[in-house]
Amino acid sequence: MPAPSVHAVSSDTRLLPAVINKVKAYVALTKPRIVLLMVFSALCSAIVAEGGWPEVWTLVHMSVGLALCAAGASAFNMWYDRDMDQLMERTIHRPLPTGRIRPQSALWFGLGLGMLSLIWLAVFVNGLSALLALAGYLYYTMIYTVWLKRRTPLNIVIGGGAGALPPMVGCAAVTGEIGWTAVWLFAIIFVWTPPHFWPLAMVRNEEYRLAHVPMMPAVRGFRVTKRQCLVYTVLLLPATLGLAMTGAVGGFYLVAAVLAGLAFLAVQIRMWREADDEILWARRAFRASLAYLTVLFAAMAMDVLI
Hints:
Blueprint: H1 6-29, H2 32-50, H3 56-80, H4 82-85, H5 103-124, H6 127-148, H7 155-164, H8 166-175, H9 180-203, H10 205-210, H11 216-220, H12 222-242, H13 251-273, H14 280-305
Helix pairs in contact: 2-3, 2-8, 2-14, 3-5, 3-6, 3-8, 5-6, 6-7, 6-8, 7-9, 8-9, 9-12, 9-14, 12-13, 13-14
Main location: membrane
Protein name: Protoheme IX farnesyltransferase
Family: Belongs to the UbiA prenyltransferase family. Protoheme IX farnesyltransferase subfamily.
């Protein structure tokens, strides 16, 4: 048998890194951290709606379908915002501004994942979860990305409904219906979204100004934005406690929700008291919002399981 040529070996060694880099670029296109947070919230919501561990394969199929949906919506978002992303330091290294993926490829990738998620959920879970996932996909891509984001400082407020739909998908996957538990879970994330994202918008305010995106801090100023964050954080407390009225959760969750809510409120107060030319507590408030939501949903699942 003849030995492989030097040119063939050299070609193979160059091809593998290129393939790996292309795969990494497509993974980045899906915003994997956002996908994980959405799947996590849906899993915890499914446990709460079921009142215990749901059937394992239902959870697996729901997680795969929702992940495909969120990934596809993220890819569409990056395709549509590619002009804006190349103007912002936070997004300039994304796959499209750097040229690692062609715009047409990103668009078809996002649309394909969205269609695959709809089929997957309809076949392996149920029709209601598929319709809710489709609603979330269209909400994020069409209502938030295309319509709201570049037109109004209320883009995050109204657009928060997209991120609030995954818990409803989780509930529908195990119950086949939309009950009060699903409604309260939707309300929690909907109210959480402004005090989660507006601190980041303050940190990246100059970048949003340069990209001509009317985020609340750029349009109304830091002082108004901080006051709005406080209002929404205060509203979060009754929203999180309202979940207990459904009987789906008990005392463990209530204690965790109160403690986590007060801690998050304390961070928001510190941000509000900080001078408007400083962003230390805005950074901390953004990170605290992610920790808060993780603790909250983990607590509701643990409450049911223990």
